[in-house]
Amino acid sequence: MRGVDILRKKRDGLPLERDEIEAFVRGVTDGSWPDYQASALLMAIVLRGMNADETAHLTRAMVESGAKLDWTGLPGPKVDKHSTGGVGDKTSLIVAPLAAACGCIVPMMSGRGLGHTGGTLDKLEAIPGFRVDLSMDEMRGVLERVGCCIVGQTHDVAPADKKLYALRDVTATVESIPLITASIMSKKIAEGIDALVMDVKCGLGAFMKTRADAKALAQSIVATGRGNGVRTEALITAKDAPLGRAVGNALEVREAIDALRGNAPRDLETLALTLTARMVVLGRLAATQAEAETKVRAALTSGRGLDTFRKMIAEQFGDARIVDDPSLLPTAPKRLLLHAERGGHVVGVHAELVGFAAMMLGAGRDRVVDEIDHAVGVRILARPGEAIRAGDSFAEVHYGNENRLAEAVMLLRKAWTIGDAKPADAPLLLEAIS
User: Fold this and answer.
1) Which of 60, 90, 163, 187 is catalytic?
2) Which is catalytic among the residues 60, 78, 81, 168?
3) Among candidates 242, 247, 248, 246, which has minimal Cα distance to 204?
4) DSSP letter, residue 78
5) Residues 78, 71 contacting (CB under 8 angstroms)
6) C-alpha distances in Å from residue 142, one per residue of 77, 100, 149, 312
7) Is 82 a catalytic residue?
8) pLDDT tens-digit readout, 236-285
9) Is position 161 annotated as part of the catalytic site?
10) pLDDT at 3
11) Can you give the pTM of this predicted structure?
12) Nearest CA to 57 among 160, 156, 192, 195?
């Protein structure tokens, strides 16, 4: 079949058949479809959309463009958690070892950040020596001995996704629920997992700004996962303010360690424990959420979760001493405290502005090729709902040079809103889609 005929069909708003979608993905993967035709079809999908069947076919074709991992022989349910990302979101570093301590096998493939600070891989690479480029044999060994590992996407897993994402990034075709769904789920299904818990962020610091868009994406992901044989649930969670008190790679590793010691900020603890409990339920290691939460809490308080994290670091060639001595993590040479000009209560902390400020300091990337400074970032000293007096510090900036410090400070001052009255507590967990 000709590519131009498939383009014309989607341009006119008609649904594509499975063989047409497979021809498109195959053509992108082997290069027989030129970039201009692939880009044209991506734009047609953005403008015309895809129904549930088309999205499932696209996801399956992307999975089949490469290898599917097989963990046969490893005891325990294979379960993963994925997030659409957000400022201060270090939950993967907490959830993976906690879920493994509860009996799950967690073969987590994560990504790097672009824009709002670093991604999970960037955070882990703040640990001296930590490797995210494990081979499949190395990955299996870590899973056998520890129960969890966190790695980057290998070249042979969903290669069509890598090519399509590169095109989407430069052709203004990122914002499409079917394309986002297929990109996320092709990698997750190729992981060889039995179940997936999805954290879909919603709010000022999220990709999905509105509740309606977040719900549409969550429903699409759940339907696509289940249509491809993976038990899938999604939680829609608020992302107006940064999660926890640390933004920046080494700072977030420190906070994850604190969380595994039972000393997390309330929002981070609530989200991490809830996500882990859902993994335990979907893994059929507990019959109810309450039973799962009891198991997860026991793994936390007993220290088994922290010990699993320590073992995972060592197995992935990192310096596991950082768990007991976080001073071994990269540390920024300079710090700056920002002070409130008035007293009252913190009404809001704009996550997106904090994320951009951290990026300017070097904690994130403007471009894929940019180098990350793992030491820099922002510590949040005054969170929404907390009282503050004039002159009190509301943020601590960790930086290495002053190239863009003034811009970052300006954004941080805009990010904090202080009012007279204490705001009502905003819910963190907005909705569950199952």
Assistant:
1) 187
2) 168
3) 242
4) B
5) yes
6) 16, 12, 6, 7
7) yes
8) 999 899 999 999 999 999 999 999 999 999 999 999 999 999 999 999 99
9) yes
10) 86
11) 0.91
12) 160
